[in-house]
Amino acid sequence: MHRIPKHNLFTSVGRKAFTLIEILIVVVILGILATVVIPQFSNASKEARENTLKDELRYLRIQIAVFKAQHRDTPPGYPNGDMSASATESAFLDQMTKNTSEDCKTNATATATYKFGPYLSKMPANPISGLSTIKFIADADDIPAPDDTTYGWFYKPKTQQIVANSTGNDTNATPYASY
Fold it and tell me: How far apart are CA 129 and CA 161, in angstroms?
């Protein structure tokens, strides 16, 4: 009877291991690929934040316009719809996140009187700065230059302008504040 010899990985004849040079070449190639690929991933992250900012602004502007159309041409932010009073962040947030009556009063639940809204589940955070607070701009004032500090958004109730309080430019060199 003829016997077939047993071989394993360690005793296999003609088996050759990788040399140190071959391993170093592979490591260098992987390093080169990493330097090309990693910046693209970080750029994709920045572009995602920019697109989210554009989407948030578009949504906020639409919801502000819908609120105004449903409330006798009164934009959100004025307490009880009184445009002679100063607009406030708390009135804006209540009017946008709760049910409202035609005269801009708010209620936590929908009823026959409080039949409008809510327009937002919560005020979104500015994806560039991470802040969701709003600075209200008086009717006679211009929207200030962005400063990225305590407010995520600038809102001018009289004109319904809402802009991001974000310094810097996007990947196309467009200032965030001009979105």
Answer: 19
Q: Which amino acid makes up residue 168? A: G
DSSP state of 142: P
Q: Which residue range forms the structural domain that includes residue 106?
A: 46-178
Integer CA distances (angstroms), 58 to 15, 55, 108, 161, in order: 64, 5, 26, 11
In a domain, 25, yes or no: no
Give the residues across from 134 on adjacent strands: 153
Query: E-assigned strands of the chain?
Result: 99-100, 106-107, 134-136, 153-156, 161-164
Based on the structure, what is the number of domains in the chain? 1
What are the helix (H) ranges across 71-155?
Answer: 89-97
Which residues are bridge partners to 106 per DSSP?
100
The Cα 13–Cα 156 span in angstroms is 81
Cα 164 to Cα 157: distance, rounded to the nearest angstrom: 15
Beta bridge partners of 162: 155
Helix or strand (DSSP H, E) at 44:
helix 20-70
145 is a domain residue: yes
**pLDDT surpasses 70 at 7:** no
pTM for this structure?
Answer: 0.76
Strand partners, 164: 153
Residue 166 inside a domain? The answer is yes
Summarize pLDDT for 49-75 with one digit per residue, the tens. Answer: 999 999 999 999 999 999 999 999 999
Please check whether residue 63 lies inside any domain of the structure. yes
